[in-house]
Amino acid sequence: MIREQRNLILNTLTIVLLFVILWLFDRYGTDYQIRILNNIAVFITLAVSYNLINGICGVLNLGPNAFITIGAYTSALLTMSPAEKKISFIIEPLIWPLNVIQLPFGASLVVAGIVATVFAFFISYPVFRVRGDYLAIVTLGFGEVVRVLCNALQNITNGPLGLKGLKPYTNLWWSWGIAVLTIIIVQRLIDSSWGRAMKAIREDETAAKAMGIDPFRHLLLAFLISAFFSGVAGGLLAHLITTISPTLFTFFLTFNLLMIIVVGGLGSTTGAVIGATLFAWGNEALRFVESPMQIGPLHIPGIPGMRMVIFSIILMVVIIFARKGIMGQREFSWDWIFSKIRSQRI
Amino acid sequence: MNIQTFIQQLINGFTLGSLYGLVAIGYTMVYGILRLINFAHGDLLMVATYVVIYGMALFSLPWYLSFPLAVMVTGIVGILLDRVAYKPLRDAPRISLLISAIGASFLLENLALVIIGGVPKPFPRPPIFDKVIDIYGVKVQVLTIYTPITTIILLLGLLYIVHNTKVGKAMRAASRDFETTRLMGINLDRVIALTFMIGSSLAAAGGIMWAMKYPQVNPFMGIIPGLKAFIAAVLGGIGSIPGAVIGGFVLGIGEVLIVAVFPGLAQYRDAFAFLVLILLLIFRPTGIMGEAIVDKT
Amino acid sequence: MAQTFFHAQHLTMQFGGLIAVHNFSLKIDPLEIVGLIGPNGAGKTTVFNMITGNLTPTSGKIIWQDRDITALPPYEITRLGIARTFQNIRLFGNLSVLDNVMVSYHHRLESSFWHAILGAKKYRREENRIREESMKLLQMVGLDHLAKEPASSLPYGQQRKLEIARALATNPKLLLLDEPAAGMNPQETLDLARFVRNLRDSLGLTLLIIEHDMKFVMGLCERIVVLVYGHTIAEGKPEDIQHHPEVIKAYLGEKKHARH
What we know:
The structure holds 3 protein chains of 3 kinds. Chain A has helices spanning 2-28, 31-56, 64-79, 82-88, 105-127, 132-152, 154-157, 172-191, 193-203, 205-210, 215-241, 251-264, 269-285, 287-290, 306-321, 334-345; strands at 293-295, 298-300. Chain A contains 16 helices and 2 strands. Chain A has one domain (2-345): ABC transporter involved in vitamin B12 uptake, BtuC (Orthogonal Bundle). In chain A, a hairpin with a 2-residue loop joins strand 1 (293-295) and strand 2 (298-300). Chain A starts with a helix and ends with a helix. Chain A is mainly α. By secondary structure, chain B is mainly alpha-helical. Helix content of chain B is 72%, strand content 4%. Chain B has a two-stranded antiparallel ribbon. The longest helix of chain B has 32 residues, at 3-34. Mean pLDDT of chain B is 86; it is low at 293-297. Chain C contains 10 helices and 10 strands. In chain C, the strands form 2 sheets. A 6-stranded mixed sheet of chain C has the order 6-7-8-3-9-10, sandwiched between helices. The longest helix of chain C is centred in the middle third of the chain and has 20 residues, at 121-140. Residues 255-260 of chain C have low confidence and may be disordered. The chains are: A mainly alpha, B mainly alpha, C alpha/beta. At the A-B interface, helix 6, helix 12 and helix 15 of A face helix 4, helix 9 and helix 11 of B.
């Protein structure tokens, strides 16, 4: 009991500290710093929910970009005013009722999550008929299908033109607020009996069934929750980048998420957080590799694509030589911190 | 649509299908032995076309030297791919292999981007293949005829190797029971390397013929054809070589005919293949000729 | 009329051209300890798989507590009160010993996942209760001191015990044990026999056991069924089975010459 109360107090203090730091950045930070912090938060949300289905359930989902896209478009279509929509949809007008609805940002995020979840629900039957490689390809296929649909359904998504001029509603409070909420909810689920059941399915599905667990229901639960937060994150991204198009959320994004959770540790929420932070920071830091540099008299031309080469190599090196990643399946715990402090003192 | 257009489209579909089939063979062979979907397989198409471009541009090689060179180089790249990305993970959990495959695929694509640049390059199609002939009023490019014929010849050659040689027997044994074959003193690494080489060479042939038909080449050109070829392999029955080619034909003809009959669906062309996959997995996971892959105890 | 406790009727399992089990029938009464023996490859685990729903019989029926369970999925059958262990241990390796047992309580949870996510008292109370009962089970098999260890780190004998503990945690009325004594020395086997008998005596369980260790089977089981190449060749009390000519032939081959 004492331990639980201690953890609760420490967690609350950490969150308060986090928001104090965010407030400082919000007040005194540069645009560049704020942008990176926003990116980190959004990727934390994405990575933690992606880890739920890939790491905890052991199911290789290669189509998270589908949910992110759906969330982004849903949220964007809901925050744009009817006038803006009329101007944007020049080839084909937007269908009713979307062309007249306008919702506040927060509500649009919730709807974005729900729509993504509904889509996940509809595809869950074919997806979970199979396992392993086939499941991976089917989910990849759905990612592609969503892209094709976004391109083709011009009276809903404005097709290849995309949606521009979205209001930059995403700020540090929204992005980090949602990130913290995602971590709390997902981790509560993982620590619960449902999380245990999902891990059991990952370890040995046949044995899990023998212990009374219906794999479909539990995988569905993880899938839906993961889709919800991915959809919300999509909405955040849309109002961070302020322009979305069908080519924005491709397998590229899926690859980055995969790399994040593998490097962080497949099956660890802490790992997903660490991985997301490293990635969002590293992505920016490595930008220099792709832009021209002047070192004294030498002019080194930028190499576009070099970042991805580096990331691909990182992914392969980790999966071949250190497949547990940074955290393995372990989580951060206050117990561990205190035991470290105690052992230092002695 | 009159009968001539129909035949024209049928031949087009046949050609497209044979390209899918050639690439699908590689997927099915690797899957048969390693139970792995080689994500990077589609990118080998791209590798082959770039070797041809550079062979002909840098070294001024005539096409009848560039093409075989590209096939050989791609075969070697295939072997290296296995050595680097898959061999170290022979005993690792399946999900690790899949992730490594994805990493390898991305690496190939972005290395190409870095080395060659993202601007699409034209493929130097040899003029002999430009000829158009007339069959009963249907205008057909000779390329469209050569492609399926080449495919069938290669398929027959491969089937001969698989069924009539010692190495082929080892391949079949390995795809039946990997562990036991390992224990029997057969040099499995060599068998696997050969499998990759053959599969990659066929993908190279497919890639070259693809580039002759659609002469714009870029680092990411192999992704969609690769995925469709994989679906073709599943359609024909994963693990079955003739099945891969049959699946390829069915998919190619289906894709072309649907767009020909319903031109409004043209933008959904790519989604068609995935729709086939999903329906397949729901109703007939064994495919036309292969083993069941739906979850069973 | 008395309830049918367990009755497997004319079960046949055919894979393509191969008939693994042919016309297998078995009736079990409550509190019985029944043994299923036979040479390797006789189809014993196949019978288990049919009963637990991992395989659907090609023909035949299985009645459990007056209910036809033949085509039900495994998790449904477990919820109805039939549990099993696996011949090649299938523990949840990366989970702790305690978690392995706690998982088996999941299907009986009354809270929904909403309760869990919102941290409701109802859920927390259930979780604590599950933890207590799981620890009690671990105490019963002598593994409570290893509760936090990953299951894969346990030595073989203790993994076997954990297999049994988590099967018990599903709250079964009928327990299927697949070669529980495999790899055990004589003392461990004796302890196991005592343990299994106790499961029946104090927990009221009924047991169906596959085993190769003859001393274990003959000493523990009240009734034995002998399966050879998918066919039942004998059924009866241990003494009768031991002297049954067909059984002896199946295990030892025909005795052409008497021993000197």
